[in-house]
Amino acid sequence: MRLLFITQAIDERDSVLGFVCGWLSAFAVEFTHISVVCLRKGGYDLPKNVEVYSLGKERGAHRFQYVFRFLRYIWRKHSEYDAVFVHMNPEYVLLGWLMWKIQGKRVALWYNHQAGGIRIRLAALFSDVLFHTSPFAYTARYRKAVRMSAGIDTVLFHKTNTQRQKNSIVFVGRIAPIKRLEILLNAALQLHNEGSDFFLSVYGESALSDRAYEKKMRKIGAQLESVGRIRFCGSVRHSELPYVFSANELAVNLSPAGLFDKTVLEAAACECIPLVSSPAFKNFLPDSLFCKESDSLDLLRKIKMLLSLSTEEKKALGEALREKVVQEHGLSVLAHSLPLLLSND
Fold first, then answer.
1. Alpha-carbon gap, residue 345 to 337, rounded angstroms
2. Ranges of the chain with pLDDT below 70
3. The domain containing residue 274 runs over which residues?
């Protein structure tokens, strides 16, 4: 089977979408040929049976040019693919569905957000199958929806030889209000006031619209920075995350209810213990690894409890979580399932 894969960016250095290159390398084993259409391309090293076509954002193209190039690509290459996989952007389904319908192409849309709206409702109508990983995803309500493996590259994400620092905590994600970093910083301040020994690393950067929020977070963390308890590390390449997680004991993720943040699974794959607030992980993580939403005191209690575990207990928990990621959310699980789900048979 041959696949048309549509996504925002093909760039190994992208801190958010760098994982897509790993996906395509795994998919290339399952498909005879993959044509990729992306909004922007950067650096990548993909198998020979994967071809990448950019709509030109990296060259400063305009929206009209994006649309024209997209329609030209999917028409010119129509004889080179049998099925379509649209990753996260329902707009592409709306643009191409009629052409694909006439040509008999099966269309899959991967959409994991909770938010609905007219675009996703129409795209869901025009898609043959809807993929999601979170039970709270908007598309999970449809009969044609299929809950998928999150596609974690467990070859890349594994415990490295990096020394794991005792009592270390890491936050990885955009510095934005939805990530609720202030809850973690307030818990860390209380942890410091109690005289606890710990170190918190914050990896991520803010969008232009969230710069005021980042400034506020840095102000909250200033006291901890002055005593060497916290470091704001900026963005990190996707390929470097295994070293980040391997260097830390706990990975705190405070995304709100419903979000199934893949960095939680990436941390677990590196045997770094996740502590989360989103109930989307209820069937994956034990109850001891959940904290109440927007509750810094409950978060504080859970951090203290987990840091107090013995080295052997932390090691055993980390190893068990990694095995669960491999079995339930490994990239090979996702890649093997795609051809069958995208087949017209």
1. 14
2. 344-345
3. 168-328
